[in-house]
Design goal:
By secondary structure, the chain is an alpha/beta fold. It has 17 helices and 15 strands.
């Protein structure tokens, strides 16, 4: 049910490329529908949001204000949540906040830095958090409080003044755990709105919902398409693909751990990808044998089975250097290093969204409680993209102040370059200051 690959086999590179390839589907109809929704929300504001919320979520309201969930409602939900769940939420929020506080300090923090050059010119940069950020989280029967924690908390740590959360609530179903997570994460405003219409409302603003500077968070194909279409009007985090994990393992690791770690990714959906890499053919044999045995007891076994069958793989490599090469070719969202001396392997990893070092470090802690945001680059984009962090919510303004002597010096050079580029007004603007 899961394919086997060998790096020494002829055609391995092509086979790996085929494994990583996502099916090319035409979403022309989806794009057309999303475009019409966005255009309608932009033109009609609140009234269109209300109409679409009734149409798609079967939730009737006389005003968008009725769709807003107050801070008091979020706070009250906590008392209805299992205390153990609340404790886990608080642990997650605490650790994610602390991690991103350290990240902010390491990047130089917010504020201003500057220097004065030999001519007395003052140069530097002002760094500040964005004014307003929108978070989209799945809702209804799906309850993903971790999505809110992993997006809202880094934004607040970065100094974002207002975080606005939208969540679909079909038939007015909203999870108390989701409300509790929103409150604990510092969400400022929350609306019962989902789909492309929520993205449009956040991107363009309506009479009730203010326009944001950036939209983050996952969603279905309609939400992802809408985010793609509004990019440029606002910033977005990324267009995320299916979840994926690559595990590099040796025979020192419990086979059942490896199988369950593969299942943990595969259960997301049928397009999720789980790949195990090892120098040991015996280990791969044992994993292949245990997969069907352990699958029997899984509640999402049908999804796991299809994901492993369609996009899973067990890859035999010559040595750990060979494994590094395969990892860097894949550029996985999650990379687990379940091997002896995993620290040595890390130095050779050039492309990975998150690296989990050592067999004791399950990828699942990254999803919930470790500290870094679990919003990660997928589909090989770790080659050029990074995990969501405080830096995604910071804006920077360059600071330039010329001294009298420095202005003459810099304007001379600017005038020469402007003339070379054929920009007359640029040149004269500089020359006026040289001539006094």
């Amino acid at each position: 049910m899961i394919q086997r690959l060998d790096t020494t086999a002829i055609g391995f590179s092509n086979a790996l490329s085929e494994l990583l390839k996502l099916p090319e589907e035409s979403h022309a109809d989806i794009r057309a529908r999303v475009r019409s929704i966005l255009d309608a929300v932009k033109a009609n504001g609140d009234s269109e949001v209300l109409a679409l919320t009734l149409q798609f979520d079967h939730l009737r309201a006389s005003s968008v204000a009725e769709l807003e969930i107050s801070q008091a409602e979020m706070a009250e939900a906590i008392i209805r949540v299992d205390p153990l769940v609340v404790e886990a939420l608080e642990q997650s929020v605490r650790r994610v906040r602390y991690y991103h506080e350290q990240q902010l300090a390491a990047t130089g923090g917010t504020g201003e830095w500057q220097y004065t050059d030999e001519a007395g010119n003052r140069l530097g940069q002002i760094v500040r958090g964005m004014e307003r950020v929108g978070v989209y989280a799945p809702g209804g029967k799906a309850c993903y409080p971790s999505t809110i924690i992993m997006t809202a908390v880094p934004a607040k740590v970065a100094g974002v003044e207002e975080v606005i959360l939208t969540v679909p609530t079909p038939n007015n179903e909203v999870s108390d755990v989701l409300l509790a997570a929103a409150y604990l994460s510092g969400v400022d405003r929350m609306f019962r709105i989902g789909g492309a219409q929520a993205i449009g409302a956040l991107a363009f603003g309506t009479e009730t919902i203010p326009k944001v500077d950036k939209i983050v968070g996952p969603g279905n194909i309609y939400v992802a398409t809408a985010k793609e279409m509004v990019f440029g009007q606002v910033g977005i985090d990324m267009i995320a693909g299916p979840s994926e994990v690559v595990i590099v393992a040796d025979e020192t690791v419990e086979v059942d751990w490896l199988v369950m770690d593969m299942f943990a990714q595969a259960e997301h959906d049928e397009m999720a990808q789980s790949i195990l890499i090892s120098t040991s053919s015996k280990l791969l044999d044992r994993v292949a044998e245990r997969i069907p045995q352990m699958l029997k007891g899984m509640s999402r076994k049908d999804i796991i089975r299809q994901a492993l069958n369609d996009r899973g793989a067990l890859i035999l490599v010559r040595d750990l250097q060979d494994a590094q090469d395969v990892v860097n070719q894949i550029a996985p969202e999650h990379l687990e290093l379940a091997i002896v001396e995993p620290e040595k392997f890390v130095s050779g990893v050039r492309h990975a969204g998150a690296i989990f070092v050592g067999a004791a470090t399950a990828e699942v802690v990254g999803d919930y409680t470790a500290g870094p945001s679990h919003v990660l680059p997928t589909s090989g984009t770790a080659r050029f993209a990074s995990p969501l962090g405080v830096y995604d919510f910071l804006v920077r303004s360059s600071l330039v102040q010329c001294s009298p002597r420095g202005s003459v010096q810099l304007c001379r050079g600017a005038a020469i370059l402007a003339e070379e580029e054929g920009l007359e007004a640029h040149g004269k603007s500089a020359q006026y200051r040289v001539q006094g």
